[in-house]
Every structure is written in structure tokens, then in C-alpha cells.
Design goal:
about 80 residues, Immunoglobulin-like, mainly beta, 4-stranded antiparallel β-sheet, single chain
Length: about 80
Amino acid sequence: MNAYPNPFKDEINVGLLLPVNTITAKLQLIEVATGRIIDEQNANSKQNLYKFNTSQLANGVYLIAIKGDNMSPSFVKVINLK
């Protein structure tokens, strides 16, 4: 999984390749300071690019997390700078 641009402003893109045996997975944008899930998308093995609209987010540190069946959770730290 990779996230770009980093730091980001109004949008962040997430490139993702799920394992073939993963049927369902959740892609989450999490605020590190509070642990709050800001946004969540369903991920699947047929799509490999996801976008989060971040225009309303405050400056700070966030995590992009992917969690699914038959896979270990993965995290990428990203920074919002306006």
C-alpha cells in the first residue's frame, strides 16, 4: 500500500493491491490524535486506486489503514499540511 501525495492537502490517493484470497477489506483514514475513523471505504481485489477527499481536515498526522480477512493489517502514516 502507498499513499500520495504525502504531505497532502485536499485529497490523498491510496494505491493498493490486495492478496488474491482477500474477499473483503476496509480502507480507513484515521486521525492519530483521537483514534477517530474519519472515512472508510470498502476495498476489493479488482480496484487498486482509492481517493479520500481531505479538504475539510485540520492539519495533523493521520493513518491510512487496510484491514481484511486473510491478511495482516497494514498502516501508512500521512501528514496533512494546508
